[in-house]
Amino acid sequence: MKRLLAGLAAVAGVGILTASLWTNAEETAPDTAAASPSPNTVIVLEEGKNFRTVIPPQPTQSGDKIEVMEIFWYGCPHCHDFEPYLLKWLENKPADVAFRRMPGIFRESWIPAARAFYTAEALGVFDRMHPALFKAIHEEQRGPSTNEEWGKFFGELGVSEADFARAWDSVEVAKKVREAMAQVQKYGIEGVPAMVVAGKYQTSAGMEGVGSFDTMLKVVSALVDKARTEAKPAE
Questions:
Q1: Number of domain units in the chain
Q2: Measuring CA to CA, which residue among 234, 232, 227 is closest to residue 200?
Q3: What is the pTM of this model?
Q4: One digit per residue, pLDDT tens: the chain, 235 residues?
Q5: Residue 63 domain boundaries
Q6: Domain holding 214: CATH number?
Q7: 111: exposed, middle or buried (C-beta count within 10 Å: 0-12, 13-18, 19+)?
Q8: Is the CB of residue 22 less than 8 Å from the CB of residue 75?
């Protein structure tokens, strides 16, 4: 924790050199030997096996909708592999579900990627930056490591050097990075990718009763149904 806090202090500094190591991640790997469930498979929720309850429940940002949130890291190969499964699930997302992402921070070297996430949001280029960064790291093996390299990466997205520096070094971005670090601990997340439903339940492909990305998303859908039922007023 002390190392993380020291790293976060650097986030708020101007012109700080940031080391971004794309290895040794707390990654949640699916069991590649596990068979994907058939489309008609009925998921039975089992506490501790395919989901965990978040204690205490955390606030959401979805208003009256059920929040589904992915927690991930750009340097995680499993997060990269999970992305097409997630995008397909989002194509048929229920109307009463609001989806968002949050960068996970388990160690100091994860901070720059989280900083890039919030910088892209602040600059309005997140939809282009998100797939581009996954591609740069995992398909082109050129993950940015220094402020200069991050600036060049954002430049490829059409962001000027001045606009990048203004957002990258902003108090607002630093604050969001600190908040993300704290939230990961509150959700009890142990690895990525992970999914949190309604601020009350979390699951990941590495859990004993999950084992694959397909099953993970079926568990998410079942947790959405659970949250929806719990939100209904008693008759």
A1: 1
A2: 227
A3: 0.85
A4: 444 444 444 444 433 333 334 444 465 666 544 445 445 568 999 999 999 999 999 999 999 999 999 999 999 999 999 999 999 999 999 999 999 999 999 999 999 999 999 999 999 999 999 999 999 999 999 999 999 999 999 999 999 999 999 999 999 999 999 999 999 999 999 899 999 999 999 999 999 999 999 999 999 999 999 999 998 876 5
A5: 2-231
A6: 3.40.30.10
A7: buried
A8: yes
